[in-house]
Design goal:
heterodimer; A: 327 residues; mainly alpha; ABC transporter involved in vitamin B12 uptake, BtuC; 14 helices; 1% strand; globular; B: 244 residues; alpha/beta; Rossmann fold; 6-stranded mixed sheet; 10 helices; 10 strands
Chain lengths: 327, 244
């Protein structure tokens, strides 16, 4: 049956309302655990949106996104502790170095397609974890401990309140979403989607596949690295098993997939549902030590994927279509 | 006299131990419609793939308007005015019909609005403008073939290569495609058409190239080729050729 497409994007007022809620949230909810969870929602939302640029729009399904996260985290920690570079500048340099790494490492990998590309990204992340675990210059398995500085925006350290961290990650989250918003409506966004749908057809339409794949990887790596640098400042230490943990890659991909890939709203919705679910099941059931939290968490994801394979955005599109067509 | 737009010189293509093209040489003249025919497995699609950069050439040279384009990547070939369609339709299934064509329109128009206008024009020219907002993957086969033509046209080619664009179409539908091809010729586009439907292509082509087992066995007008014993042998077998 022929399918007529009417784009169902989030109405602007919903986005503005969401932004308002995000801005007032830490003033309304004072609970420290809830505030921490909100910070992780935004951090994973940022990473899932970065993943979405590669996986959702360009069709490069990465299961090794943690490589970019870890390199970003290490670069800013290293620049700060060894050269005394301001954390804000270190954050940007970390993003740029990681983007460069993404492009260089992505060049041979981007020639692969589908599952072969995904497997290569897992290998890349593992190579990074093992390399950093054995690299004495960056602390090997001990990692890097950041010195505690005076609390200020300049030092990127806040000891008395979580609020500044919340607003910083909210700012980064808004930036990545704006970038995706603009990309979605640009020539580059069309090219990304064309490559995702059919590489041969894309090349036949004059698209330089290698260039646009690497551009997509570079942008994605940059924003993922910003999340890594943020975590460095938030926890004040980095170590290989912490910032190169494969579970981070899987969570990032799951947030995007559960939310609905290839759409701006997908990773936002995915992070809003999956991260609190993970944090609260862990808090409530994790202490029993029987993995009940992970079982419940996993079962919910399986049930959702069966009922709504197109993710939360698929659900949103169905509801909004029904609403418009109902008398 | 028409000038040469494409020259293929002594072209070879090997897939491991299999020689798919063997010393193929020909010249295409500007503004002509050329039919490329041959039995299944003759190497027609391989030849298309080599010319458009989708398959690397083993040996030989391809000159487009005098410029050596041998082994250029496909996107570079398209940007120089050489577009194609595929034997197995290659479209962007998860994008709308209009978006499919817009992707190609971005070669000449940087803005989304401008690309949309160009796309609508190409859709109209190909006769599928009524499908604009449909998902490309959900179209019936004839509409997909027309969409592929629209996608090629929007890149504003000077040489358009159509690979079995009429296969599987009803007589009415292929008459529409014939008309489209003739209109393109009037607009100055040079065309190469791979086709199995002889009654569709023979009446409209200026010249015919015949490939068999990777070798160019004949070239000339439709009448000359139809009477060529090598062509008859390739299509109908040795016995039939001797009995004529």
């Amino acid at each position: 049956m022929m399918e007529l497409v009417r784009h169902r994007r989030f109405p602007t007022f919903i986005l503005l309302f969401g932004l308002f809620i995000a801005l007032v949230f830490p003033w309304v909810v004072r609970d420290r655990f809830a505030q921490n969870t909100a910070i992780f929602v935004l951090m994973y939302g940022l990473m899932a949106q970065a993943w979405n640029i590669m996986g959702g729009y360009t069709g490069l399904i990465s299961v090794g996104q943690v490589a970019y996260f870890g390199i970003g985290a290490y670069t800013s920690a290293f620049l700060y502790t060894h050269f005394g570079i301001n954390p804000w500048i270190a954050l940007l340099i970390g993003g740029l170095i990681t983007a460069l790494f993404g492009v260089i490492a992505g060049y041979p990998v981007s020639k692969l397609r589908g599952r072969y590309f995904s497997i290569a990204t897992i290998a890349m992340a593992e190579v990074m974890r093992i390399s950093f675990s054995n690299w004495e210059y960056v602390g090997a398995a001990r990692g890097i401990q950041l010195p505690i500085e005076k609390e200020s925006l300049l030092t990127f350290q806040f000891h008395s309140s979580r609020l500044p961290y919340y607003y910083i990650i909210l700012f980064l989250f808004i930036v990545v979403n704006l970038v995706v918003y603009v990309l979605e409506r640009s020539r580059t966004g069309f090219y990304f989607r064309a490559i995702r749908d059919n590489e041969e057809a894309a090349a036949g339409l004059g698209i330089n596949r290698s260039f646009y794949k690497l551009l997509s990887i570079g942008i994605s790596a940059f924003f993922t690295a910003l999340a890594g640098s943020f975590l460095t400042q938030f926890s004040l230490y980095v170590e290989p098993d912490y910032v190169f943990a494969s579970s981070i890659s899987i969570t990032v991909a799951m947030v995007a997939v559960l939310g609905g890939i290839g759409s701006l709203g997908g990773p936002i919705l995915g992070a809003l549902v999956l991260i609190p679910l993970s944090e609260y099941t862990r808090a409530w059931l994790g202490k029993q030590g029987q993995g009940l939290d992970l079982m419940l968490y996993g079962a919910l994801i399986i049930v959702f994927c069966i009922l709504e394979p197109k993710g939360l955005m698929g659900l949103w599109k169905r509801i909004s279509t029904k609403k418009r067509t109902s008398p | 006299m028409n000038t040469a737009i494409l020259q293929v010189e002594d072209l070879y293509k090997d897939f491991g131990g299999l020689r798919a093209l063997s010393g193929v040489s020909f010249t295409l003249k500007e503004g002509e419609i050329t039919a490329l025919i041959g039995p299944n497995g003759a190497g027609k699609t391989t030849l298309f793939n080599c010319i458009t950069g989708f398959t690397p050439v083993t040996k030989g040279k391809i000159l487009y308007r005098g410029k050596n384009i041998t082994n250029w990547p496909p996107h570079k070939v398209v940007r120089h005015g050489l577009a194609r369609t595929f034997q197995v339709v290659q479209i962007l299934d998860d994008m709308t019909v209009e978006e499919n064509v817009m992707v190609g329109a971005f070669l000449h128009e940087k803005t989304v609005q401008g690309a949309r206008l160009l796309a609508r024009k190409a859709l109209q020219q190909s006769g599928i403008d009524h499908y604009t907002e449909h998902l490309a993957g959900s179209l019936p086969i004839p509409a997909k073939k027309r969409l592929e033509i629209a996608m090629a046209l929007v890149t504003k080619p000077t040489l358009l290569m159509l690979d079995e664009s009429m296969a599987g179409l009803t007589p009415t539908e292929f008459r529409d495609v014939q008309e489209l091809i003739l209109n393109l010729k009037k607009e100055g586009v040079t065309l190469v058409v791979v086709e199995h439907v002889m009654e569709a292509i023979m009446p409209i082509c200026d010249r015919v190239l015949v490939l068999n087992l990777g070798v160019l066995i004949a070239q000339g007008t439709a009448k000359e080729v139809a009477e060529n014993p090598d062509v008859i042998k390739a299509y109908l077998g040795d016995k039939y050729a001797r009995n004529r």
